[in-house]
Amino acid sequence: MSTAQGARARARIEITAAIKDEARRQLAAEGAARLSLRAVARELGMVSSALYRYFPSRDDLLTALIIDAYDSLGESAEAAHEAAAGPFERWLTVCEAVRSWALDHPHEYALIYGTPVPGYTAPDATVPAAARVGLLLIGIARDAHQDPELARPPLADELRPEAERMAADLAPDLPPAVVTALVAAWAQLYGLVGFELFGQFNRVVEDRETFFRHAVGQLARGVGLVPTSR
Length: 230
Description:
Elements: H1 3-30, H2 37-44, H3 48-51, H4 58-82, H5 87-104, H6 106-113, H7 127-130, H8 132-144, H9 160-170, H10 176-197, H11 208-223
Helix pairs in contact: 1-2, 4-5, 4-6, 5-6, 5-8, 5-11, 8-10, 9-10, 10-11
């Protein structure tokens, strides 16, 4: 790559980052539904036509912000996962990392797990980043269930066909009962975080850190995990 090409590439990276930073500021101030490419361009001193060379539409910019948010969350969860030992402890640590990230990035959390943006449908390009935390939780359960003596969650007969379908799609090497419990726990994890972040716990739960740790511990047990010190 020539010096001129390298300079252009660096300039593009810097301008792209500036556009995203301004868009995140707008998310915090106005919400995702009111994100405007023209407003972003105006705040950066750019003409709209120049910004469109980086993001052809609002939806393209939203998609980039969503992928960035999922990747940031995933990186935080993966870093926490590496620092813990034992499936139960790794589960707790990953869940606590999700909560901490959400509290530190409330507007980005709202973008990916809050109210859908009218007129926007997330493309398949967001799926790999969105799956990072879920894949961590599946991996933790997979490691734990290498132990043949580990108890499996119960599975109602009427749920078995759906459980087998989910297992085939998500983790064919895990028992359908475990996969069903994992999907429920995944949904409940984000429900717990969302209730705290969006105010539903106000005047209900005071010691939220302790409550959260207890709740996600119960989710871990529901998946069949047990503390290492048992």
